[in-house]
Amino acid sequence: MGTYSTFTREFEYPDGGTFLLELLVPPGSNAAAAEKALDILHDSVMWVYLFTGPEQFDEKKLPVRKEILELVRKREKMKLETKPESTLEELEKVRDTLAGLAGTISPGYRYTGTVYREIGMQNSDFGGMENVGNTTITTNRIMPFPQTTDPAFEYMIRVKVHEYHHNQNGSEVTGKSPFEIWLNEAVTVHVEEQYHAFLFGEDYQRLGRVLELLAPASGTFALDSGAASMPIIPDGFNDPNDLITAVTYVKAPEYVRMVESLIGKDTFVRGLDRYFKKFRHSNSTTQDWIEAMETESGQPLKEMSEIWLKQTKFPVIEVSAEYDRASRKFTFLLKQKVPEGGKPWEFPFKAALVDENGNDLAEILERVSGETAEITVENVDMPAFLSLNRGYSFYGKLIYRAGQDELLMQVRKDTDTIGRFTAFYTLVDREKLRLLKNPESRPSEDFVELFYRLLNDRQLLERAGGQFLTIFESVEDDEFAHRYQALYEVKQKLLKAVAWKYINSVVSAYRFFENSSAPRDATLEETARVIKSRQAKNVCLGILATLDTPDIHAMIKQQFETATCATDRLSAFAAYLNSSAPDKIEVLRVFEAESKQNLVAWEAFLAVIGSNSSIDAVELVREMERSNAFRIEQTNDQRALYGSFARNRKKSLQTEEGRTLFAEILQKLTPVNEYSTVNMLNAFANIDLMEAKYHTPLVKILADILAGLDAQKFPSVYNRVRKLLLGAPKAVGAYGIVHGKIPALQPESLEKK
Predict the structure, then answer these.
(1) Measured distance CA(410)–CA(422) in Å, rounded
(2) pLDDT per residue over 510-521, tens digit each?
(3) pLDDT attached to residue 227
(4) What domains can you pick out in the chain, each with its CATH number?
(5) Cα–Cα distance between 112 and 171 in angstroms, integer?
(6) 294-332, pLDDT tens digit by residue?
(7) Is 177 helix (H, G, I), strand (E, B) or coil?
(8) Beta strands in 184-300 (DSSP E)
């Protein structure tokens, strides 16, 4: 097992009950970072106790729960202080008050063991892995190292509460088979997201999830619509690791969230409580969970659940609307595209009619089933715009052909942050498509003005973070959706137009968020505020970087050299690497040498290299894999360098040198780590939708892998490659004309296997 340094902290419940928190990390680990890690774990365990459970949404009890939390923080601070008699007396008074208050609430899960231990696992396929009382967490994410980036810090917070909650959902109540893994994970992710929202705010948390759904290379919709798509509960698998995907960790929690929306939050947590009590210290099935929710709510869920859990892909809903002025009646008309041979999805549809001042005229939440639906709102004024799929109420995509002015008004006035973002996303999508179709055209004044306004909406960015201004390198139109290099260039063109016109304003916003990102105290809530401000600051830096001028190079380099946190340094490094700065390679060499000294820093450095957009991108990846610091057997190194390069599809799929390198990586990595290899293969999920010139060379990479692979030794990789090829009949046909049929795809080959 090796040798660990052990750090401990007592956990004391409000009523005085205690157990020990233990952290096992590599020898010589930073003691301050270890103590902070224990603080974060302590806070997450206390949050589960205070803010989950059957009455967590009782508004009357919420002030009591918050009061208990503040008193617990006061008690913990007093316990660390020197203990004169007066302090001990005060401490006992606080304990007495806490014990009294604790008796007035119905708390959430209470740990039943004497020790709860987190163990650093350096070489792990997963961020965390729950075991009763002994959770492993990848060492690079177990503590807040000085080299930890903001996204990694957020992940650390989430993984700690996630794995701890598995003591209840996954250990005390355990699935009867591997096919229940979705249930273990989806319900636990649902709780994890509540904790993340508690610290960072609901808008920030939910928007982050929506961005995860929409991301073009690694997003859940991209995975769930491509050739690698699989249902939440598949019919079978090659290896249990095949079930550890975004379908399990994102789509499945979205299904759970839809159930919560349909039956109501109060009913949902009572249903969970019923389920946990009934199956405590025993095994349960998917059906057991659904029946607990049906019993508590009185609503039918079996048919809806069967479709969501067993059908691949997601609903695409076309929405149109009618308004009858005479009767003041508004009607939504919904039509969903159903997969061939599939059934219509059932889901919650939340929408609002909004006036020109952003006031809701009416809001609805309807349960939709069937291919079409008609929803009527009576006695209402004509709305100025529609706010559809509020809060991203259902897992799917929505098509509504709103006018430009209507969307611009929604971006500015909608009170629903997700509604504002989806309107912005639609406007940007249209702008990108226009530029793709007319490469000589310039970004519109409407777009430039809108982006400028949003960048200067301090309240929005302080609430939702810089992530609100995300512009993906993608479009919804299938004809252009996979022209990765062109999409990158269009994004740069849009940001550069903003930078040219409003350079002084962007610099001013940069300085504002730079000042705002100075922490005022050490609480997690304050850390969350700082992370959001820093995110907005680095969005500003990215906009300015598109100008690629000497004065901007100097500004980027100054941030790189004076940064006091890893995120600022890496953001500046990534921008500098993609620039034309004459000394960027010297900067890279110095930063590379420094990063090699620390495993956390090295992982972050490799991720920047793998995702970089410079002309040297492929050669830089080759250089790093030749480095004596790069170890192919280490999952952190694999994911950081190879994984980021795989997702960098403009380089890995659309350049000849990139394809050559990617093919080599897949060949080398398969015998080392099937799980990492399968994840990287997802980059090939949409070959048929790419331009014809890429079909044959990309299919050749996959065909060559199959030809040299032992299906018995590496079943996950072998079957994923076959699935990708079978899902790309057009590309495989083009390959066949040049190279002949692929033997492994022929029926006789399958029979032999």
Answers:
(1) 9
(2) 999 999 999 999
(3) 84
(4) 1-145 (3.30.2010.30), 316-401 (2.60.40.1840), 402-501 (no CATH)
(5) 12
(6) 999 999 999 999 999 999 999 999 999 999 999 999 999
(7) coil
(8) 282-284
State the alpha helices, DSSP H only, in 546-684.
550-562, 566-577, 584-595, 599-611, 617-626, 635-637, 644-647, 649-652, 656-669, 674-681
Q: Which candidate, 65, 38, 63, places its Cα nearest to that of 51?
A: 65
The alpha-carbon radius of gyration of the chain (Å, integer) is: 26
CA distances to 209, 220, 334, 381, 386 from 400, rounded to whole Å, are: 21, 21, 10, 20, 10
How many angstroms separate the CA atoms of 567 and 539, rounded?
Answer: 12
Whether the CB-CB separation of 424 and 411 falls below 8 Å is answered with yes
Whole-number pLDDT of residue 580: 97
Convert the pLDDT of each residue in 579-608 to its tens digit.
999 999 999 999 999 999 999 999 999 999
In whole angstroms, give the CA distance from residue 247 to residue 308.
11
DSSP 126: S
Rounded to the nearest 5°, which phi and psi values hold at 274? -60, -45
- The Cα 584–Cα 554 span in angstroms is 11
| CA separation, residue 657 to residues 614, 651, 661, 662, 694 (Å) | 14, 8, 6, 9, 13
What does the pLDDT look like over 103-142, one tens digit per residue? 999 999 999 999 999 999 999 988 899 988 999 999 999 9
132: left (phi over 0), alpha (psi -120 to 50) or beta: beta
Backbone phi, then psi, for 565, in 5-degree steps? -140, 160
Neighbours of 497 (CB within 10 A): 19
Give pLDDT tens digits for 156-215. Answer: 999 999 999 999 999 999 999 999 999 999 999 999 999 999 999 999 999 999 999 999
Q: How confident is the model at residue 1 (pLDDT cuts 50, 70, 90)?
A: low
- Rounded CA-CA distance 160/141 in Å is 10
Tokens of 193: 């997201």
* Owner of token pair 């809903």: 317
CA distance 671 to 242: 16
Q: Is pLDDT at 750 greater than 70 in this prediction?
A: no
Q: What span, in angstroms and rounded, lies between the C-alpha atoms of 41 and 398?
A: 39
The whole-number pLDDT of residue 292 equals 98
The answer to whether 275 and 261 have CB atoms below 8 angstroms apart is: no
Per-residue pLDDT tens digits for 700-741: 999 999 999 999 999 999 999 999 999 999 999 999 999 999
CB 213 within 8 A of CB 186: no
Residue % of the chain over a pLDDT of 90 = 93
The mean pLDDT of the chain is 95
pLDDT in the model for residue 85: 66
Q: Give the whole-angstrom CA distance, residue 156 versus residue 386.
A: 38
128-129 and 134-138 strand pairing:
antiparallel
Interatomic CA distance for residues 53 and 99, integer angstroms: 18
Of 196, 197, 167, 208, nearest to 184 by C-alpha is 167
CB atoms within 10 A of CB 511: 12
Residue of 242, 238, 241, 240 whose CA lies nearest to 229: 242
